[in-house]
Write a structure and sequence with these properties.
With 188 residues, this protein is an all-alpha fold. The protein is built from 8 helices and no strands.
Length: 188
């Protein structure tokens, strides 16, 4: 097996793994599959952690994860898929950041790892074992990578920034209740 073949196989495995996990998380949010809470429950959670309106935030996160993950797994529209998934994971990282880095303590380690994998795939491309390759890279042009990542970074900055401002503007008593509620939701 040549290096080029190994690279394509490695990208396929990374796409299937990261894309599959992201798609499953999105399906939890959108449809309540795999033990998820669906749009209603996820919307309530989103509001509890400062993302408003909750249902719209749950829908956006679910679509970014399910759609971005599915497209990554297929290797289709890889720059946009990777950027969308990375943006959703950046939003999740913001929720977990107060708990530190490690996932075992509720930190952002897991979300950040998925964000980096999705970003890396957006930059590296899907490889030859992909729909992008089969379609002649119509949805995977060089200019699409910085465009997709830039637009997503700007949108994510605005959304996370608005969330952080809402949390800062809450009274200290409300913040303690918010984080106690968030912790209880994560333990369910």
């Amino acid at each position: 097996m040549s290096s080029y073949d190994r690279r394509d196989l490695g990208l396929l495995l990374l796409r299937l793994g990261a894309g599959g996990v992201l798609a499953a998380h999105g399906a939890q949010k959108l449809f309540g599959w795999f033990g998820g809470h669906g749009i209603e429950g996820t919307g309530q959670f989103m509001e509890s952690v400062g993302y408003m309106p909750g249902k719209a935030s749950a829908t956006a996160a679910g679509l970014a994860e399910a759609g971005g993950g599915t497209l990554l797994a297929l290797g289709l529209a890889t720059p946009a898929a990777g950027a969308a998934a990375a943006g959703a994971m950046a939003g999740a990282s913001a929720v977990h950041a107060p708990s530190g880095f490690f996932n075992a303590e509720g930190g952002y380690e897991y979300a950040a790892t998925l964000a980096l994998a999705a970003t890396g795939l957006a930059v590296a491309g899907p490889g030859r074992l992909s729909l992008d390759h089969a379609l002649g890279h119509v949805f995977d042009r060089g200019w699409m990578v910085p465009t997709a990542l830039g637009v997503t970074a700007a949108a994510t900055t605005l959304v996370v920034g608005a969330r952080n401002k809402r949390l800062r503007d809450k009274k200290p008593d409300e913040q303690e209740a918010l984080f106690a509620e968030e912790e209880a939701l994560f333990r369910e």
